[in-house]
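Deliverable D2.4 — example input (structure tokens):
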């Protein structure tokens, strides 16, 4: 809620901007819990902003979510299993009521998706939407004693976490605590996979040797076909072209104008004023992303990045 509080402090009314905010969420393996999570999220959103922020516009109380299916459980071994995983995760998201959806491709544990694998992801969404009619029903799991109980439990836990964050002074001041929670959850999930407490087919249960893994063998055969892109091939010349382009920008920009705009941006960041106008001018002057990261580190006294950096370890290598 820190962003909303800052906007209100700057003179905006809650109903002036709340309807413009959307969430980026993921849909994970536990089917019923995920559907309940999205249901609880909508309830928490409406409750918090109606009761604590006095939002009155009905559109302000609608929680809008874009969902991406969960990537850490996609596996190199038996890669076509990932199509099934992403389909199930997608159905949980649709039944939970998300507004839009991205489906991870089955080969993302191996490489950047190809046109072939990306098309399967698109077809997955289209089959769910057009053939099953799941998306035609509002809240299809509503009324299930199990889903309703899960939704209520998750709502209570979410409110408790929000209250804890508020008690610490808001999201920015509670950032280290939040990152710690995320990292602990990631570590627990990895331990559960390593120990077998969480079954992951092809990894810790129903494993196959390389010789017997027909799916992996099929991928290798497809990849050898000259008329078919089985796995994405990274073109190393892209790096050279990007470096050349970056050096060209650096050499041609007005260094005096760049310093002037970057100094103004840094001063604005330190005072906490609206940095967007200064940021736009600095970018127009040729400021790079790395240079902006350096300014952010100086402004927030955090070497290596500002207060928004939080990168929990990947669950699977």
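Example output (designed residues):
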């Amino acid at each position: 809620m820190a962003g909303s509080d800052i906007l209100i402090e700057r003179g905006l009314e809650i109903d002036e901007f709340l309807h413009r905010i959307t969430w980026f969420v993921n849909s994970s393996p536990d089917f019923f819990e995920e559907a309940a999570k999205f249901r609880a999220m909508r309830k928490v959103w409406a409750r918090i902003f109606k009761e604590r922020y006095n939002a009155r516009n009905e559109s302000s109380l609608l929680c809008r979510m874009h969902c991406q299916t969960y990537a850490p459980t996609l596996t190199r071994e038996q890669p076509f299993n990932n199509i099934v995983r992403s389909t199930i995760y997608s159905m949980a998201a649709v039944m939970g009521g998300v507004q839009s959806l991205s489906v991870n491709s089955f080969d993302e544990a191996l490489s950047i998706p190809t046109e072939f694998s990306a098309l399967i992801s698109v077809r997955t969404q289209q089959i769910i939407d057009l053939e099953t009619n799941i998306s035609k029903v509002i809240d299809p799991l509503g009324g299930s004693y199990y889903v309703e109980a899960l939704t209520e439990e998750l709502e209570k836990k979410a409110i408790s976490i929000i209250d804890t964050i508020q008690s610490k002074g808001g999201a920015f001041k509670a950032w280290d605590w939040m990152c710690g929670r995320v990292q602990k959850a990631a570590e627990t999930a990895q331990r559960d996979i390593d120990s077998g407490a969480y079954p992951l087919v092809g990894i810790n249960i129903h494993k196959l040797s390389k010789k017997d893994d027909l799916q992996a063998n099929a991928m290798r055969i497809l990849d050898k076909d000259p008329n078919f892109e089985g796995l994405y091939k990274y073109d190393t010349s892209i790096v050279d072209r990007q470096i050349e382009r970056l050096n060209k920008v650096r050499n041609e920009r007005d260094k005096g104008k760049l310093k002037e705009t970057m100094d103004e941006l840094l001063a604005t960041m330190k005072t906490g004023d609206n940095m967007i106008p200064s940021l736009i001018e600095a970018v127009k002057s040729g400021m790079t992303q790395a240079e902006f990261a350096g300014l952010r580190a100086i402004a927030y006294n955090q070497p290596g990045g500002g207060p928004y950096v939080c990168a929990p370890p990947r669950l699977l290598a």
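Confidence is low (pLDDT under 50) at residues 304-317.
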